[in-house]
């Protein structure tokens, strides 16, 4: 109608404008789209469906309406599209009689409640049951259809709140996540009968979600305990590519993290079924030595996977089923190789009159219901007499078919599990509505003690009562915790085939999550039948555990997983130095505290060795050498004092010789300060004593060099230089040169004095006690000044080396300075590169070597003449005038 009205309006408008001004054609062209939009908005007074909902189901009117979402088909075929025409809706394939029974259970429960005189008297429940096709997208379409209705006249969502109060659904966790998030803005509570993902317990993300099935947190604990109970330590895991599979795998890994159970592989059934991808998974299973396979998947995803598995020559697999498919009759009847499967199922219950109810559903009682006709096609492979739905590939039905016991997927009513959960979910809503209606004004749970208006009940008001609901059904108490979860309990099911070839789901144990840790699982081993009809659990899988497995890693080592191999194929790697492990099978090694180091076995932390130049063998040796040097110097001093009146002592300026010997004695003794544990005083004394004593010694030698050079120069006519180098001037030279070093040391001690430090970085297994110089600049200034004095002495002595006489003092001074400079030049790289106490030893060696060099070069020749050749101790011999 809108399309017919638009041309008339546009034409009238255009003619009116033409009468006024013919030149406005361009303006009209610009205004036309705006007018069209305004006209369309004025005519759109109702909500219009943007596409058709081809979702068959069941519907019934009532005072209160609840929804039901069930996976009546277990797979979806995506249609081809050419991107030229609107895409066609996905086709649901693979009718599931088991899920159809769940939907009928919801109808049965509603009809029972409507007939009850005690529950919701004078009120009736209505329902809208639709198909999710076991996929999240179709589940969302279904819940939107439940909210809006299939007819455009049912548009209450556009102008008012939804008449829908609650939803029973869904089976798959991924579908429930989508449905719950779709319902959340309307605050409509949802009770799931088979969604177990632990993620749904998060009240911040899913505040309106409830379930009457235990969370996967408990299922993975039960599976892990089952694996431990039978000693299955080498397993494979197959999951569906949905949240259910991902979260279940994550939980199982957490449960087996610190156990002997190892994961050989994890494969994921593709969300969009691909034969190529499935074949790759099957090849992994064929090549693996793991014969125990845990499967977390819904039957819809697992069915086509098993169809391909049956074509491959893979044998000896012991299947561990998750609750999502452990009671799937369609799988048990179709694939005999699943015999012996064991897994945890939802606790069974009792639904009265369910058997009689499902037997009344047939194409003759429901001639227009497509789902009922599909049920008959699945059960009997015949086409019911309906022109609209006749399948030309099937023979027509006779009309005399009756549901038989062999149709266990549909007729398993004696011990229903999921159907029982559906039954409990409907009664939970009914009891909550009943409590809401029975509210007494002034004692209600809402503002100021008010109650809900029965004529306009809001979904959030029903959720308040649903959270607190508690009732008994079939002898079981039903309630919800703060997360919307129910009491966790499972039956341990074993797939067994009876003498008639019929599959039986036999309960062989139970898991009760309410019991204390370690006592939850109870198993009757004698009733279990394993894969291949074996009687022993050890025979249910090949004893080919990971042939790469090692024994337990002893303390002092850690497990190192081999690259590209399963997590339990590891090597025992010794802990790195400084790390320990004091437990068997440690995953990682712990680092020792800073002052501790690992023992040789890597099992304990022991205090680090504290290293410094102590009075050990090296320290004692250096001490003895220093004392010998000092004693030798004192002996030379005594010889010179005793023979101070002889020519050789007098010619060599006895006062300067005494100063040199005294300073050399101090040089030998200052080496002793470097030995022992560093302290604040010893660190400051080491470098200052060393620098001042050596500066004093070199200053004396410099004074002697100047006197020798001046003495021979003064023999020339008119040269009176000796008057400037008398005893007083010599003392001034020595004092001045030494004073400079004293000033440098004082500035060093004031600004940044040396201090003891603990070096733990150079050698991490030791604590090296050393003296930090404080200021590197001051340290190198001290050494540089000593080097400057030595170089000056060397140059002056070198210039006087050819002066006449048998006893040329300048030659000995030159040689002594040459040795002194060589020693200290060699000291610098050795000092920088030597670690720990050897740094101090190198410094002491440089002090002693240079001191011995000066002592021997300057005084050994003189002592030789004084003590061995006294006949040469004459003035004529020294002056070279002896004939």
TrEMBL record:
GO molecular function: G protein-coupled receptor activity
One Pfam family named in its UniProt record: 7tm_3
Compartment annotation: Cell membrane
Main location: membrane
Membrane-related topology note: Multi-pass membrane protein
All copies of domain G-protein coupled receptors family 3 profile, residue ranges: 618-882
SUPFAM superfamilies in the cross-refs: Periplasmic binding protein-like I
Keywords: Cell membrane, G-protein coupled receptor, Glycoprotein, Membrane, Receptor, Signal, Transducer, Transmembrane, Transmembrane helix
GO cellular component: plasma membrane
Superkingdom as given in the UniProt entry: Eukaryota
Membrane-traversing stretches: 12-36, 617-642, 654-676, 688-712, 732-750, 777-800, 812-832, 844-867
Family: Belongs to the G-protein coupled receptor 3 family.
Protein's name in the database: G-protein coupled receptors family 3 profile domain-containing protein
């Amino acid at each position: 109608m809108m399309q017919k009205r638009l041309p008339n309006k546009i034409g009238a408008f255009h003619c009116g404008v033409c009468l006024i001004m013919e030149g406005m054609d361009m303006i009209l062209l610009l205004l036309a789209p705006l007018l069209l939009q305004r006209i369309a908005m004025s005519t759109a007074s109702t909500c219009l469906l943007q596409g058709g909902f081809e979702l068959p189901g069941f519907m019934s009117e009532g005072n209160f309406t609840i929804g039901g979402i069930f996976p009546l088909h277990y797979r979806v075929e995506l249609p081809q599209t050419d991107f030229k025409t609107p895409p066609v809706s996905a086709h649901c394939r693979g009718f599931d009689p088991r899920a159809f029974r769940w939907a009928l259970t919801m109808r049965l429960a509603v009809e029972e409640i409507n007939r009850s005189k005690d529950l919701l008297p004078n009120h009736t429940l209505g329902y809208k049951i639709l198909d999710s096709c076991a996929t999240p997208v179709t589940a969302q379409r279904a819940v939107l259809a439940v909210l809006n209705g299939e007819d455009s006249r049912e548009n209450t969502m556009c102008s008012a709140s939804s008449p829908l109060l609650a939803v029973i659904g869904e089976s798959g966790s991924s579908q429930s996540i989508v449905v719950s998030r779709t319902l959340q803005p309307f605050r409509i509570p949802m009770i799931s009968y088979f969604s177990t993902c632990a993620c749904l317990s998060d009240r911040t993300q899913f505040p309106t979600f409830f379930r009457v099935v235990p969370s996967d947190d408990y299922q993975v604990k039960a599976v892990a305990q089952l694996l431990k109970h039978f000693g299955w330590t080498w397993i494979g895991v197959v999951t569906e590519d949905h949240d259910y599979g991902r979260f279940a795998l994550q939980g199982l890994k957490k449960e087996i993290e610190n156990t002997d159970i190892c994961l050989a592989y994890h494969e994921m059934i593709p969300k969009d079924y691909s034969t190529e991808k499935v074949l790759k998974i099957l090849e992994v299973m064929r090549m693996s030595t793991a014969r125990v396979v845990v499967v977390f998947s819904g039957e819809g995803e697992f069915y086509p996977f098993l169809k391909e598995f049956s074509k491959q020559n893979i044998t000896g697999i012991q299947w561990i089923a998750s609750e999502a498919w452990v009671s799937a009759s369609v799988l048990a009847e179709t694939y005999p190789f699943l015999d012996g499967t064991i897994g945890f199922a939802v606790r069974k219950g009792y639904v009265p009159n369910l058997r009689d109810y499902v037997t009344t559903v047939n194409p003759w009682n429901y001639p227009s219901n497509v789902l009922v006709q599909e049920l008959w096609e699945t059960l009997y492979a015949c086409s019911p007499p309906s022109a609209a739905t006749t399948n030309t590939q099937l023979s027509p039905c006779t009309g005399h078919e009756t549901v038989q016991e062999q149709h266990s997927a549909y007729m398993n009513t004696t011990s229903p599990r999921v159907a029982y959960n559906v039954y409990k979910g409907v009664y939970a809503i009914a009891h909550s509505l009943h409590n809401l209606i029975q509210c007494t004004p002034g004692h209600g749970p809402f503002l100021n003690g008010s109650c809900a208006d029965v004529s306009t009940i809001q979904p959030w008001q029903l959720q308040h009562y649903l959270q607190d609901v508690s009732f008994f059904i079939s002898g079981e108490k039903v309630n919800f915790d703060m997360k919307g979860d129910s009491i966790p309990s499972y039956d341990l099911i074993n797939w067994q085939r009876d003498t008639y070839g019929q599959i039986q789901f036999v309960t062989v144990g139970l898991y009760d999550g309410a019991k204390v840790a370690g006592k939850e699982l109870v198993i009757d081993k004698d009733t279990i039948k394993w894969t291949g009809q074996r009687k022993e659990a050890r025979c249910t899988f090949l004893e080919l555990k990971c042939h790469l497995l090692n024994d337990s890693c002893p303390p002092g080592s850690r497990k190192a997983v081999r690259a590209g191999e399963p997590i339990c194929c590891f090597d025992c790697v010794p802990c790195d130095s400084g790390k320990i492990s004091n437990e068997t099978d440690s995953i990682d090694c712990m680092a020792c505290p800073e002052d501790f180091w690992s023992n040789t076995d890597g099992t304990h932390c022991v205090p680090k060795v504290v290293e410094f130049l102590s009075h050990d063998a090296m320290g004692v040796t250096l001490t003895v050498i220093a004392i010998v040097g000092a004693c030798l110097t004192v002996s030379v001093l005594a010889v010179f004092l005793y023979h101070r009146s002889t020519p050789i002592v007098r010619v060599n300026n006895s006062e300067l010789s005494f100063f040199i010997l005294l300073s050399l004695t101090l040089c030998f003794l200052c080496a002793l300060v470097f030995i022992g544990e560093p302290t604040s005083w010893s660190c400051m004394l080491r470098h200052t004593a060393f620098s001042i004593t050596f500066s004093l010694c070199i200053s004396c030698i410099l004074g002697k060099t100047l006197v020798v050079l001046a003495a021979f120069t003064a023999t020339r006519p008119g040269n009176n230089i000796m008057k400037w180098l008398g005893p007083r001037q010599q003392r001034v030279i020595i004092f001045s040169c030494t004073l400079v070093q004293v000033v440098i040391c004082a500035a060093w001690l004031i600004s940044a004095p040396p201090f003891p430090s603990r070096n733990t970085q150079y050698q991490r297994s030791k604590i090296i006690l050393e003296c930090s110089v404080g200021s590197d600049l001051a340290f190198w200034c001290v050494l540089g000044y000593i080097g400057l004095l030595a170089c000056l002495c060397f140059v002056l002595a070198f210039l006087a080396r050819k002066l006449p006489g048998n006893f040329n003092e300048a030659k000995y001074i030159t040689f002594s300075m040459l040795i002194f400079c060589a020693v200290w030049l060699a000291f610098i790289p050795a000092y920088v590169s030597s670690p720990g106490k050897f740094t101090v030893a190198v410094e002491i060696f440089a002090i002693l070597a240079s001191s011995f060099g000066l002592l021997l070069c300057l005084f050994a020749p003189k002592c030789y003449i004084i003590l061995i050749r006294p006949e040469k101790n004459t003035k004529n011999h020294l002056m070279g005038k002896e004939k």
